[in-house]
């Protein structure tokens, strides 16, 4: 548990390093805004990719330490139990992690209220500083969450193997001696590595479509109520809120079904041991992708805040306009796709465990039909 706690703090520290405007990475990212939106997006993507190095090495170290400290060398089952405990250790700071995660939106909305209420400029400056810190705390919270999700998914993967062994004896040897040269294992790894990317694509497209509907609604209101811009007519706020909430619910149906159907369908067609490879592939690619998205999005947002604080010409400059483009790209990265991968990994693992006996039975039927 102490290993997990230390690993969580290491991930949290380096998340802050890569996303806070008090450190070099985000400050250097703001420099890229001087040459336009394209270089800002390229530099942000590069920063996000680089930021995965320390979290991955930390999880590797925590996994090895937890496995061997709990007696995994002599009894592998105890080692896997130790990995599960390290995930609990990483989540032992859940109270403060949730508090800091919730702090960000509070500070952000306070700034929005200050701007809409036309309060003094210094009020907005203060809320911007709080909002910048909120972006970093949110990224730190997501780092804790996805790190613990990786360790939890590994423990769930071990549980799945145990259930398969107990449910169907004739696949025991295959499960315990997985051969990477087996086509079914390679198929599972490729399918699993692909799923976080498809899932992220669907969630990003959902954000894009909802944003497009919102823009059209705002344009319609401006066209039909010209007094809005002059302050003589009240906008229809409820219409915009309805577009966001209804769009969020409608667009999440397909990604949710993907997480449920993929492990079941894979197991029915290729067998339960291919599902193990599927979960392993999804875990490895999803963990890295989630860290990259969360950190890149936070860095883009804080690079914009850094420029608004007076760097590179300040608010309204060409550099600021480029940084706003980066921030707009970063929002679905850090607020939608990145955090949702955490849910994808855990949901796929739980669905696999719940339906394992059904999948084995249907896989036997599938083999008999097609043989």
Detailed description of the structure:
- GO terms for molecular function: diphosphate hydrolysis-driven proton transmembrane transporter activity; inorganic diphosphate phosphatase activity.
- One of its GO terms (cellular component) is endomembrane system.
- Its EC number is 7.1.3.1.
- Pfam families: H_PPase.
- The chain is mostly helical.
- Helices cover 85% and strands 0% of the residues.
- The protein contains 15 helices and no strands.
- The model is unreliable at 170-176 (pLDDT under 50).
In a nutshell, what does this entry contain?
It is built from 15 helices and no strands. It is mostly helical. The longest helix has 47 residues.
User: What's the total number of strands?
Assistant: 0
Q: Mean of residue pLDDT?
A: 88
H/E element sequence: HHHHHHHHHHHHHHH
Q: What Rg, in angstroms, do the CA atoms define? A: 23 Å
Q: Give the percentage of residues in beta strands.
A: under 5%
Class of secondary structure makeup: mainly alpha
> Helix tally?
15
Helical residue percent? over 70%
Question: What is the end-to-end distance?
Answer: 49 Å
**What is the approximate shape?**
globular
Major sheet size, sense and barrel closure: none
List the uncertain runs: 170-176
Protein name: H(+)-exporting diphosphatase
Pfam family, one: H_PPase
EC number: 7.1.3.1
Transmembrane segments: 41-69, 78-99, 185-204, 252-270, 276-296, 343-362
